[in-house]
Every structure is written in structure tokens, then in C-alpha cells.
Amino acid sequence: MMNRSAEFAARIQENLATAVLLFDKDLHLLSINSAGEGLLSVSNKRVSGMTPKQIWPKSSFFYEAIQRSLFSGSTCIERGVDMHLNNNQKIKVDCMITPILNGESPEEILVELVDANAFLRVMQEVNQQTVQEAAKESIQGMAHEIKNPLGGIRGAAQLLERELDNKDLFEYTQIIINESDRLRKFIDRMMTPSVKPAKDEMNIHEVLEYIISVVRAENSKSLNIVKDYDPSIPDIKADREQIIQAILNLLRNAVQAIDKDGLITVRTRIQRQVTIQHRLNRHIIVVDIIDDGPGIPPEIEAGAFYPMISGRAEGTGLGLSIAQQLIQSHGGLINYERRDSNTYFSILLPLEQKNGQ
User: Fold this and answer.
1) Are residues 159 and 203 located together in one domain of the fold?
2) CA 66 to CA 336: how far, in whole Å?
3) Domain tally for the chain?
4) Please, where are the H alpha helices in 191-262?
5) Residue 193 contacts residue 325 (beta carbons within 8 Å)
6) Is the pLDDT of residue 241 over 70?
């Protein structure tokens, strides 16, 4: 009975979205759950047996708070604590440190950590999805209204061409016909995100290699693109063409953002216990497109994924919006972040597909 209870408790801990770390009374780590590995960007095997000083060498708060809680036998709760990770990132966490007593003596220390910005990101995601849905309906309605008269304009130009005696004027009717065709294709591309994904097995790294080759081929300047892939990532079920379009939009933006000596990094990783679109995913793939350009202008940053918002005079403001909608149709999300003088566009894709996705 005890073994079954222990196994059940272990399963619960492993599936928690909250990071949970358990230390013994000598402050050596006994266990860390999947959410903890994801939050701290470490593996259980790597940190098992470590002390708080070794796990957080640049964040003295955790060692001092855990030690204080152990000696006092009281719970410590802190909000918005800076945590410096071993990958040189810094995050803010809400922290609860609880001594586990055996009688009156603490035998173990339980540390619970939650990303302090997680709720804010969820609310931003909800707001963005709401606006995206409204914008998508608006664009599709507008596109439908434009496509109808385009057919009439093209047909009228063809009829006019038949009636013209002066062949030199054919140049103008051809311009009308060609521009009508070009505008129709452009509108079709605007409406692409409404197409339901046709999912099949695909390798994310094969797709990235193809996208990088396309971007290199369409640019006359030499591009400095660094690839940092996690080879352990398995194949996923996704619409290859839609994933290509989404990532291609992001990579093209990065190319336009950098100068001639600029650097772009394409990185893949697996994260655990991540909530996207109100669903907790045990594992997700993260594709980071990182460039050292100036980033999105602050005045339009909040609406960067909304249609018709662009930081470039020649931009349509549709690239990021379409990319976001394509990824969202796969149960994923694109995040934007400015960090350490670099621009990060992070594509989050669930590794295990849910029913109906």
C-alpha cells in the first residue's frame, strides 16, 4: 500500500506545473520535478545532491532563505525574487520554502517556485488571441470584399483589350490584368491562416535547414547564421508548409533587422510543463530565432503581432500576424522578447498533439 501511495505522490509531483525541489537537512538536493528542471534549465541528473549554493551560485537569497527556514522551522514566502540561472538568464520567481518536520525537528526542506511573470504572460496570450481572432475575421471580410470587384476589373480589362484598335494600348490593359492577378494572390496569402493544418510527421531540423537555405538563396549579402540544435528532439506531427511559412517570416524579419556584420542564431530546445492556450503540455519544442538587430520599435511592440502593424515603411504588417496564427493553429505560440541587446522570437510547439488539434 505504501509503495502505491509513494508512486501516486511521485506522479502528482512530476505532473505539477509548479517547480518543486526537495532538500535534506544537510541541504543536499534529493529530488526535482520536471517543472523544476524546465524553470531552472537543468537536469535532475546534473543537480542531484547539490546544495543551494551550487545550484544558484549567483543568487544568495535561496541558500540563506532555505537555511533560515531549516533552523527556524518556519515557512518562508517571497515574491518577485531575482533568480540567476546557469545559462546567464535571469528570471523573477515567487518562492515558498517549507520545512518538513519529524516531530519538532526539520528533516527535509520543500522549495516551491513559480515564474512570477507566468500569469502576466497568460493574460497577454489571452488578449492577443482575442485581438487576433477579431483581426482575422476583419481581414478575411475585407479580403472577400476586395476579391469580388477584382474579378470584374480583370474581366473589364480583357473586354476592353478586344475592342482596342491601337495595339500600343495593350500595355495598359495588361498592367490592369497583371496587377489584378497579383493583388488576388496577395489576398489569398492573407487568408492562408484560415486553412486547417494538414499534419504529418516532420523533422523540425530538416525544416529549419530548408528555410535557412531559402533565406540564403534570396539574399545577395553573406549571412552569419549560427545553428544550435538539440539533436534529441523527435519528429512532430505538423503541417510542414505552414510551419515553413511561419518560421520563414520570422527569419526574413531577422535578416532585415541586422546590419552587414549581424548575427542570427537558430536554436532548438525541449521544455517541460508549459501552458499554452490554456493547456498544460508535458513537453514542447522551442525554436528561437535570435538576432542582434535593434528589435521592434517600443511604440509598436505591444501590437507587433497584430495585422497592419509594421516597423518598416515598406512593410505590410502581416508577416508576424500570419506567423502567429499559423503557429496558434498548431496549439502553439510565438513570443517576442528583447534580452541582452538581442531580439528573441520564440516558437513554442507542443510535442504531444492533443485530440482535435
Assistant:
1) no
2) 34
3) 3
4) 204-217, 240-257
5) yes
6) yes
- Whether residue 123 is found in the same domain as residue 112: no
Judged against a pLDDT cut of 50, whether residue 248 lies above it is answered with yes
Asked if residue 336 lies in contact with residue 323, where contact means CB atoms within 8 angstroms, the answer is no
CATH of the domain at 96: 3.30.450.20
Burial label for 188, CB within 10 Å (0-12, 13-18, 19+), is exposed
* Phi/psi-derived region of residue 275, left when phi > 0, alpha when psi is between -120 and 50, beta in every other case: beta
For the segment 203-212, the average pLDDT, to the nearest whole number, is 94
Same domain, 17 and 106: yes
More confident of the two residues 289 and 259: 289
For 284, counting Cβ atoms within 10 Å of its Cβ (0-12 exposed, 13-18 middle, 19+ buried), the class is buried
Q: Which residues of 51-81 are buried (b: 16+ CB within 10 A; e: fewer)?
A: bbeebbeebeebbebbbebbeeeeebeeeeb
Do residues 175 and 256 both lie within one domain?
A: no
Collapsing DSSP to helix, strand or coil, 53 comes out as: helix
Asked if 213 and 350 sit in the same domain, the reply is: yes
Q: Is the pTM of this model over 0.70?
A: no
73 pLDDT exceeds 60?
yes
286, 353: one domain: yes
Q: Element (H or E) spanning 261, and its range?
A: none
Looking from the CA of 31 toward its CB, the CA atoms found within 13 Å total 9
The verdict on 140 and 250 lying in the same domain is no
Q: Which residues contact 162 (CB under 8 A, 6 or more apart)?
A: none
Cell of 31: 529530488
